[in-house]
Amino acid sequence: MSNKISKIGVFTSGGDAPGMNAAIRAVVRACTYYKTECVGIMRGYEGMIEGDFEQLDARWVGNILQRGGTVLKSARSKEFRTPEGRLKALGKLRSEGIDSLIAIGGDGTFTGLHKFHQEFGIPSICIPGTIDNDLSGTDYTIGYDTATNTAVEAIDKIRDTALSHNRLFFIEVMGRHSGYIAINSGIAGGAAAIVIPEETMSFEELYKILGEGEETSKKSNLVVVAEGSKIGDAHTLAKKVAERSSYFDIKVTVLGHLQRGGAPTYFDRVLASRMGIAAVEGLLNGKSDVMVGIKDNKIVYNNFDIIMQNHHEIDEESMRIAKILSI
Amino acid sequence: MSNKISKIGVFTSGGDAPGMNAAIRAVVRACTYYKTECVGIMRGYEGMIEGDFEQLDARWVGNILQRGGTVLKSARSKEFRTPEGRLKALGKLRSEGIDSLIAIGGDGTFTGLHKFHQEFGIPSICIPGTIDNDLSGTDYTIGYDTATNTAVEAIDKIRDTALSHNRLFFIEVMGRHSGYIAINSGIAGGAAAIVIPEETMSFEELYKILGEGEETSKKSNLVVVAEGSKIGDAHTLAKKVAERSSYFDIKVTVLGHLQRGGAPTYFDRVLASRMGIAAVEGLLNGKSDVMVGIKDNKIVYNNFDIIMQNHHEIDEESMRIAKILSI
Amino acid sequence: MSNKISKIGVFTSGGDAPGMNAAIRAVVRACTYYKTECVGIMRGYEGMIEGDFEQLDARWVGNILQRGGTVLKSARSKEFRTPEGRLKALGKLRSEGIDSLIAIGGDGTFTGLHKFHQEFGIPSICIPGTIDNDLSGTDYTIGYDTATNTAVEAIDKIRDTALSHNRLFFIEVMGRHSGYIAINSGIAGGAAAIVIPEETMSFEELYKILGEGEETSKKSNLVVVAEGSKIGDAHTLAKKVAERSSYFDIKVTVLGHLQRGGAPTYFDRVLASRMGIAAVEGLLNGKSDVMVGIKDNKIVYNNFDIIMQNHHEIDEESMRIAKILSI
Amino acid sequence: MSNKISKIGVFTSGGDAPGMNAAIRAVVRACTYYKTECVGIMRGYEGMIEGDFEQLDARWVGNILQRGGTVLKSARSKEFRTPEGRLKALGKLRSEGIDSLIAIGGDGTFTGLHKFHQEFGIPSICIPGTIDNDLSGTDYTIGYDTATNTAVEAIDKIRDTALSHNRLFFIEVMGRHSGYIAINSGIAGGAAAIVIPEETMSFEELYKILGEGEETSKKSNLVVVAEGSKIGDAHTLAKKVAERSSYFDIKVTVLGHLQRGGAPTYFDRVLASRMGIAAVEGLLNGKSDVMVGIKDNKIVYNNFDIIMQNHHEIDEESMRIAKILSI
């Protein structure tokens, strides 16, 4: 099969994540190594439709390994959701001679590529690049390690001021459908309580944890809240606690988009490098309609269908750990 | 006069700032050097009223130089605003044999100490510790350098994602009455526009700056907004721009309390060390009712009255620089 | 079995590693959770012999989670290698009522505890705390993730200056018997070549890689060298290259002990927390003479014998990756 | 005079320093603001002789503000020291239409430009970019603030391990002729002793300071040594102490080139921005053969002659401070 692949198009799509550039670089260098051409598609599906392409070589990806964001840029594309949009994209790819695709992004990105693959059969592989770590089929997504460290560094700074004032802080971290960043930055940040989308803790239970702190004269508290919390975001929870008790001097910080940026950690750079190479090798070996993943530190390829139908669960062990530590 | 001072009480009050611990350490070590006793008053005026004291020596302040926050803690005290509260505090100080005071904090802290000094004549010196750099009588306050760097590091991360998506970001930094953090983190962060309390830029003018970016196809923009902005905070400004134009994909990040924490920069540690020593030496040399400051890299002592009646202006040069750079 | 364990002694020994404090905290909190007493043994085996003990509780381990180093301190002990020394240590433990031990450290630490256990049968569990990641029986040791990131951050800074001057840099990282830090910081830092103790690359082969760079007019090069390199340390290699060719402007940086310090990453904090809890639970469940490890993200317990007889190999995949990327 | 300047050539030379890119960006943006052309001369005098020029505009300097190193690169040039070399350079500048020069670098850079100016009269201004802060005529040079913070962060990490082991560390920082980085990173890092080129402390005096630590059972010590130390570098001093006493467990770390890299601090970015603009405005206002400086937070222009004949002294106050704090 491998003789079919001679020009790979690579693009990033969806929210950016630290390590995407390391993945792009690895794709390009693997192409050079395997004497395959590589074309960068700018701004995701939008650039595919417009034919916004860049010839990529080792020089083009020089000195990007350590940078946050994505040099190929990212954008949302409404047009690609229409059959006409996808046909236009196909035309541009054919004109350019691109015969296979590597997408770096999250589940929205994958859904689009899966559809495109079903319609036109172009060999396609996805690389999971999203800080949320919410994709099944891989233990880690690119950007998650960096984002969690960014959250922990912010929590460390907030703890300085929390301890100086005996305050209660609600800190909101990213994770609309996934509590990965929250649970691990919460454990690493010494949170008194952690609120995640996956868990069924009620507000009463949360309040009781804080109240227990009060009784035991534990004076400083940090509560880490995933943005997808089912019992209210950080501002809402802070308001509800304030209404119940005047004991606490409460502050809220929403970390927001700074979690997406920054130089990637070694872990994300190495993960991205491995996945970038694996994506190229996968295409050359005839794989398609799959996502590269890492399981128990080994590269795996999973069908899109399977990835899309499952959620990356948080193990109960993490929640148990959090509970013991916050005693 | 110096023979009167034999036991100095030191405390932190108001919002904490990185470098306060370095100042405390310097006060203690200077006391040791000058063979003067030093007592820590916990939780500011609150601890003074309660007699919450700690004997301080070199060991107690070991390994705190690099830590954010304040090991003496800080709190607000309503009671100290009453004559009864202040009398109670005086009693506790006398019982402990404390004959002079060093306060580390901002203008609220100084106002309290000034009143206390007027009533009871206890020798008192203030050290400016606040991230806002909003005190006249000193070129720099302790914590400002660190907080501005923290803001810039956050802006750098947000720029990664802004550039990847061609987005417009409104980033709110601290500074209720002062634009110091905003103007300097804005220049250093490459902001397209900077909104500060001191300036009279209207929303129309701001919008025009962003619009010019649109015309010239400059695709990414960061706007840094001081929390004390007169034309609306970051969320408000973002909303107003969104109502006017659908051109921009707008996001908002409020940096909040993480600007208060973190290990202080070398500048804040050295500044705090110099000021801590200068406060002790000032008391021993008979100075009182003054704030230690730094002017043109030299230690100065200014009367409280003068400090309180003036504002630390932002020089027009900074605004001019910002304008040239954002071209 | 669990009724035998009522007072656990915990200590750190050997070189310190970031995350040791998080492990100590987790041991103490798990003891509180399981209503077991916990005593800190200061300065490793040295403090055990001297009876230098501290009663540990949640307050004692407050605010240490994020700190590098070890609050229990570490030291080498010649005396513990003698039968008399170990007998003395046993006596002190008995006087204090300590009936079980948790050691945090590397293979030297484990060897001592293994012998102690063989002689006196005291229930003992080890936690792997060493930046080198050189222990079999666990995928990761505490401190390795942080140390590798510290190395990468340093490499990033050196790359700035290397690129500005077209220089060749030899950067020496820790790892006397293990190339883990070197291979992963090398991949993440974009090294042209990586020299590790496990590999059999000759100086000629290394020189050829650099020379190829020369031919292809690649002007900047970073070579990462593990301190345990079999073909010479960074200074030696730099000298040998300089003798062979005047083409390169060569500089050397030995990162040294700064790799041991710093606030631990989220990964090391969570790993240390899990292992600390697992060590306590292991003892309470009757395990002894084992090391806690993590394999495929699950806690495992391995016998000391097995740990000591094996080396933690670097997988060939990593070396393959490094080769493809440095093309 | 200003009508003479229509095309400015800008270059970096000598050792790189963080903030150089911010200065380049400011020069380019000021040129745009004042409608003057700007040409980048690559690799300093070497590129000037070769005619290695780049047309610079706002786009070219986009997203470089936060990067260490210099995008214009730097190199040493033997040829520029010869009259023939300088004549060649002049020819290339004339062909390109460059009528004035801005150099960013240290004293070596300035000496070359001063000579060039004397010979050919081309309007020339220098911007002080060197981490050593060793230039008279300015309170701060670009890169010094960042380098000192980098040194302090490294010292903080080493302190973690020093405290865990009761060790004595000798840490060597940059500064061949100047103790600025050493004295300020030493104060900020809590050093027991600081060895700088400017001071006359003998080895005996240094040893006595450490010995006093021994007597007073202060168990951990950091000694910061500037590379230009007159009594031996860090390795030499460590060896001499070890020969004298077996009391200390001594380690050495030479920070080296990592001090040159990294994202510049806000201070260096703002300083570089101000100086870049001031250099352009200076040329346009007819100034020449001067160095831009900052004195008491105001821009100044000093003649090269004056700069070259003086040394930037360390004030005695700093040494006094260091002594009081290390008590």
Automatic annotation (TrEMBL), chains A, B, C, D:
Pathway: Carbohydrate degradation; glycolysis; D-glyceraldehyde 3-phosphate and glycerone phosphate from D-glucose: step 3/4. Its cofactor is Mg(2+). Its EC number is 2.7.1.11. GO terms for cellular component: 6-phosphofructokinase complex. Residues 7-282 form the Phosphofructokinase domain. It catalyses: beta-D-fructose 6-phosphate + ATP = beta-D-fructose 1,6-bisphosphate + ADP + H(+). It comes from the Bacteria. PROSITE patterns: PHOSPHOFRUCTOKINASE (PS00433). Allosterically activated by ADP and other diphosphonucleosides, and allosterically inhibited by phosphoenolpyruvate. InterPro entries: ATP_PFK, ATP_PFK_prok-type, PFKA_ATP_prok, Phosphofructokinase_CS, Phosphofructokinase_dom, PKF_sf. ATP binds at residues 15, 76-77, 106-109. It is found in: Cytoplasm. GO terms for molecular function: 6-phosphofructokinase activity; AMP binding; ATP binding; fructose-6-phosphate binding; identical protein binding; metal ion binding; monosaccharide binding. Mg(2+) binds at residue 107. Substrate binds at residues 130-132, 167, 174-176, 227, 251, 257-260. Its main location: cytoplasm. ADP binds at residues 25-29, 159, 218-220. GO terms for biological process: canonical glycolysis; fructose 1,6-bisphosphate metabolic process; fructose 6-phosphate metabolic process. Belongs to the phosphofructokinase type A (PFKA) family. ATP-dependent PFK group I subfamily. Prokaryotic clade 'B1' sub-subfamily. HAMAP family: Phosphofructokinase_I_B1. Homotetramer. Catalyzes the phosphorylation of D-fructose 6-phosphate to fructose 1,6-bisphosphate by ATP, the first committing step of glycolysis. This is ATP-dependent 6-phosphofructokinase. It comes from Ohtaekwangia koreensis. The gene is pfkA.
